[in-house]
Amino acid sequence: MNDVTRTPAYCAQCRSRCGCNAVIENGRILAIEPLPGHPSGEKLCPKGKATPELVYHPDRLTTPLRRTSPKGAGRTTWEPISWDEALATIAERMAGIRDRHGPEQVAFSVTTPSGTQISDGIAWVERFIRGFGSPNMIYSTEICNWHKDVASKFTYGWDIGTPDFAESELIVLWGHNPTATWLARSVEVQKAMKRGARLLVVDPRPTLYARRADCWLRVRPGTDQVLALGLANLLIGDGGIDADFVREWTNGPMLVRSDTGAFLRQSDISAGGSPDVLLAAGPGGTPLRYDAAARRWLDDPGTVELDAAYIANVGARDVACRSAFGVFADTASAWTPERVEAITGVPTEALRAAAALLAQSKATSYYAWNGVGQSTTASQTDRAISILYSLTGCYGRKGGNVPGVAAPFADISGHDLLTDEQRAKAVGLDERPLGPGRTGWVTGRDVYRAILDGEPYPVRMLFSFGTNLLVSQPDTDRAREAFERLEFHVHTDFFLNPSAEYADIVLPVSTSWEREGLRTGFDASLQGLRRVQLRPAVIEPVGEARSDTDIVIDLALRLGMSETFFGGDADRGHDHALAPAGLTVEQLRASPEGIDLPGSVPYRPYARADGAGVPAGFPTPTGRLEIYSERLLEHGYAPVPEVSGDAADPDPDFPLTVSCAKVVAFCHSQHRNLASLRRLMPDPMLEMSAESAAERGIADNDWVKVATRTGSFVARCRIVRDLEPAIVFAQHGWWFPEADQANGGTAGPRAANMNQAVDTSRSDPISGSIPLRATPCQVERMDAPAS
Question: How far apart are CA 776 and CA 779, in angstroms?
């Protein structure tokens, strides 16, 4: 008799982490279904529905493999080995390099927890890397989450926060399309719209939400910073800002010296004055003192001027000063609606309509992600958007973006395990001292340089957790050369992929359905942050597959890190993480749908006062939301987001711009081997306007070649209405799993890899981001690739 059960769980394939019931029959997973009542459990996407296809795919890796053929010599051959032999070999090679050359000469590559099933084990993997002592983890964060999660701290001190959609009057989606990337969040947006919330979309593509928006700004890729400054200029000029918030909670009133660009301090104008005391201007030029260290005014700030000019006597000379808000306002004023339209393509009337929406709403939430984080000005673009949002006064407010979580949890990802000495060795950190390298998140380009050129030192080994750098990152040829040069290379995954073909040992990883997974908050909504869930292993692992967590714990014990890894007991580690919230693993096992923590994420956390009545403020150097960043200035960057340009000079040989966008069927370079998802999109597509296609003799569904100065890739044309004729859109992550892995050219597995065509000679000076969304190109019709 067949026994069908339904086990509460959540899908870990993407950022949505949708709550679900796993349908099990005779130990096999048949399907997953929505889980009503779960904060992300209302709907499931095609990837989730393809779960059984992924789990039982005939190409699943089921045993450790060791390479038996030379690298770069055609078809790769493998032999199965035991787990003990594989892990013993890996530990021996890692220990040898660590002891002879230093742990920094072992680099790691970690796939994204926002788009893969590693999210269950990512904290353990990071703990392993930092505990080992390597500061070199290719995380791809510079082209993913770093700007919204870290660069936003240059402004807020916190990250972008969680949008309070349930209370929002206006929702802004800026370079973020949740219908394709975050289903649970899309559900929340739809609920808000049904309730009456208005929608402002900034996106060059006619997405579902762009078409449904109250205002759609069809911005040209790479010009978002100009657009944000233009909107800020209108808000300031039309009196549409929340002046009380800007005056009370930002560093806008603080005076900035024209000679140094630094804040004017009491110690600048008074012998014995404190360098912690910043000066602002009151009526008639009266200086008002603010103690940044104590987070409080020393004079009554009720009369502080927001847009002020001041002459300070510094060392017997006069120094002109301007308030930080005034400095930003002057920068934004250069971006008139007409000038913004000329650069961004956004019509003046649409710009004014968007500014009016922002000015009218008292509860605006927003989200910006890859669409603005993949350019050579990504960091300052994030700054411009963050400051624009700050002018509305909605950060932290009910209906706005709220920082923080429902309860504290202990961090087990090991940020405290990496010593300052090792942290300083991160490749690329000298060039980008404020970038992701500060926390050991490095770019693939910097690791390839270390492998191939020995700069700043050689990298001898690469340990990859589920990544596919040859497809998901640019510099494809250099990556291939680097992989061939490595002394040792380990890859963990569900399947072999183009990058795994260069490994010496490949380890089979269990899917999330075959292992436990802890989730401390579901961030599609503010309410979902209160849910904590321990998903059980709903089926036994296929073959000999093991979880990422089990793999790194085993290796940690072999490498002498038992104490760091809780004696090898994952439950002890989870209990350590849960303890501040008053939870245990056993409590969660007894409540498979999860436990909702009491209380809620607090609004306006910066306003919470201590016993002396002093508000907490913002976790920034000035204790205030920072319109003007001295920290950026001190490292040679613009303290307010001045435009330096992203687009390359016009090139008559490459008159179009190729950008990219994600689709619901796939996450990054995954899922192309699943038949049900390939039926949704059998081939890579290039979205074009009818006008651009006709000019080139291209019809809908024709195969085309997209060429840039750097390289080329192939795709099928899809005619899309409402696209600007000068812009075309591809999808990154494409490869052909069915193709011969040893075959190159237009029929090879990487023929559709758009990253082969991305120019990486220019990058964001702060984060290292590259122009994945704006590369000059040409498109021509071609015959179909040979099968």
Answer: 10
Per CATH, 65-144+409-520+537-591 and 656-781 having the same topology is answered no
* pTM (two decimals): 0.96
User: Packing angle between helix 548-558 and helix 122-132, nearest 10 degrees?
Assistant: 20
Phi, psi for residue 507 in degrees, rounded to 5: -110, 135
Domain covering 65-144+409-520+537-591, topology: Rossmann fold (3.40.50)
Determine phi and psi for 142, rounding to 5 degrees: -65, -15
- Of residues 709, 708, 719, 711, the one with CA closest to residue 779: 708
108-166: pLDDT as tens digits: 999 988 889 999 999 999 999 999 999 999 999 999 999 999 999 999 999 999 999 99
The structure tokens listed for 208 are 């579902």
- For the stretch 45-62, pLDDT in tens is 999 999 999 999 999 999
- Of 3.40.50.2300, 1.10.287.1700, 1.20.190.50, 2.40.40.20, the CATH number of 656-781 is 2.40.40.20
What tokens does 331 get?
């920068």
Helix (H) or strand (E) holding 107: strand 106-110
SS3 311: strand
Among 315, 312, 314, 334, which Cα is nearest to 323's? 312
Sequence spans of domains, the chain = 65-144+409-520+537-591, 248-329+608-634, 656-781
Whether the link from the prior residue into 641 is cis, omega within 30° of 0, is no
